[in-house]
Amino acid sequence: MKAVNNYFTTAAKDAQTVLPALKDAYSRLTVQYDETTHPKLRILDGLVIFSLLSFVVQIVYMIVLGTKEPLNALMAGCFCSLGQFALCASLRIQLSDTTFTSYSNKKSIIEFIVASFLLYLSAFCLIN
């Protein structure tokens, strides 16, 4: 029993030393993100996060309900969420990264729009 109590006290001490460092790292990260990221890229980051959260909500909904009754609709929803996440993440990389300097921003956006259209068209066909 003494070993268990000793384990919890050392874990609590470790948590007391790690948590302030994590808070400091998080605050520095948010300040740097706010200073260096263009507002239009922040909107795109929000879309990336939203599409990922949408996927998680759909999976949790399926688990809580315990049924996969409209399986085609569930598959189409998950397909769209993950596909939109991938497309937005790649657009974000193309618009902000310095490695794509020879690649036009307009071309990236047009490709994103066409790929999104094809993604939703294929999901619509999946629903039947």
From TrEMBL:
The record's Pfam families line, in alphabetical order, gives: DAD
Localization of this protein: Endoplasmic reticulum membrane
> What is the topology of this protein in the membrane according to its UniProt annotation?
Multi-pass membrane protein
Functional pathway:
Protein modification; protein glycosylation
A single GO CC term, please? oligosaccharyltransferase complex
Broad class of where this protein is predominantly found? endoplasmic reticulum
For this UniProt record, the keywords arranged alphabetically read as follows: Endoplasmic reticulum, Membrane, Transmembrane, Transmembrane helix
Q: What family is this protein classified in?
A: Belongs to the DAD/OST2 family.
Q: What biological function has been recorded for the protein in this entry?
A: Subunit of the oligosaccharyl transferase (OST) complex that catalyzes the initial transfer of a defined glycan (Glc(3)Man(9)GlcNAc(2) in eukaryotes) from the lipid carrier dolichol-pyrophosphate to an asparagine residue within an Asn-X-Ser/Thr consensus motif in nascent polypeptide chains, the first step in protein N-glycosylation. N-glycosylation occurs cotranslationally and the complex associates with the Sec61 complex at the channel-forming translocon complex that mediates protein translocation across the endoplasmic reticulum (ER). All subunits are required for a maximal enzyme activity.
Q: Describe its partners and assembly state.
A: Component of the oligosaccharyltransferase (OST) complex.
Q: What is the name of the protein in this document?
A: Dolichyl-diphosphooligosaccharide--protein glycosyltransferase subunit OST2
